Amino acid sequence: QLQLQESGPVLVKPSETLSLTCTVSGDSIGDLYYWGWIRQSPDKGLEYVGVIDSDGNTYYNPSLKSRLTLSIDTSKNQFSLNLRSVTATDTAVYFCARTRGSGSFGDYWGQGALVTVSS
Amino acid sequence: DIQMIQSPSTLPASVGDTVTLTCRASQNIDTWLAWYQQRPGKAPKLLISKASNLESGVPSRFSGSGSGTEFTLTISGLQPDDFATYYCQQYENHWTFGQGTKVDIK
């Protein structure tokens, strides 16, 4: 059974970088699928962050593109998110998910990680 | 950006009811639409892709229809587990989610 688990700091200071890692178990991250990040906050609801494929090709939400970097480490079966220069509006539950393409949907999701941006 | 509008925001219902949730896209998305169920404190669970394709393991009481800009999710014979929030998501251009419809107990 495929499982995804987010990990990373739960509290980030304004202007710093939010970093999260998603560890995938039950399948190889280097197979046919794509891997994505979605966040959810009371203000904005569910928001697409970005997607990366096993070759490292990335597809970003245009509104976050200037601050966002996604990366993938197939040897560790992990993919990661770095969001720079965060503000309180980046406070959200961050989900990682498996997707069936860059323009697709999430068919398996992690449980989510609440990240708060505050000094 | 493609906007997704769901209605109603809240839908009071009883066990056994048949309910229909609506999702409208701000422009034509063909059938590039997914539906999710989310329970409090949990991740969204994929129910339907390509507007009407039921995911493996999802009960047949869930069905989706529509194309272009108008879509519906129907739950036929509501079960206790179905009281949750439902989201639509377009994937014609990036991803955009609707704001959700909460199905709660009447």
Brief descriptors of the model:
heterodimer; A: 119 residues; mainly beta; seven-stranded mixed beta sheet; four-stranded antiparallel beta sheet; 11 strands; B: 106 residues; 0% helix
3D architecture notes:
The complex is a heterodimer of chains A (119) and B (106). Chain A has 119 residues and is mainly beta. Helices cover 0% and strands 54% of the residues of chain A. In chain A, the strands form 2 sheets. In chain A, strands 2, 4, 5, 6, 9, 10 and 11 form a 7-stranded mixed β-sheet that branches. In chain A, β4 and β5 (45-53) form a beta hairpin. Chain A starts with a strand and ends with a strand. With 106 residues, chain B is mainly β. In chain B, 0% of the residues lie in helices and 52% in strands. In chain B, strands 2, 4, 5, 6, 9, 10 and 11 form a 7-stranded mixed β-sheet that branches. A 4-stranded antiparallel β-sheet of chain B has the order 1-3-8-7, with no helix packed on it. Chain B starts with a strand and ends with a strand.
Q: How is the main sheet of chain B built? A: 7 strands, mixed
Main beta-sheet annotation of chain A:
7 strands, mixed
Radius of gyration of chain B: 13 Å
Secondary-structure-based class of chain B equals: mainly beta
Number of continuous helical runs of chain A: 0
Strand and helix layout:
The complex is a heterodimer of chains A (119) and B (106).
Chain A: E1 3-7, E2 11-12, E3 18-25, E4 34-41, E5 45-53, E6 58-60, E7 68-73, E8 78-83, E9 92-99, E10 106-109, E11 113-117
Chain B: E1 4-7, E2 10-13, E3 18-25, E4 33-38, E5 45-49, E6 53-54, E7 62-67, E8 70-76, E9 85-90, E10 96-97, E11 101-105
Parallel strand pairs in B: 2-11
Antiparallel strand pairs in B: 1-3, 3-8, 4-5, 4-9, 5-6, 7-8, 9-10, 9-11
In short:
The complex is a heterodimer of chains A (119) and B (106). By secondary structure, chain A is mostly beta strands.
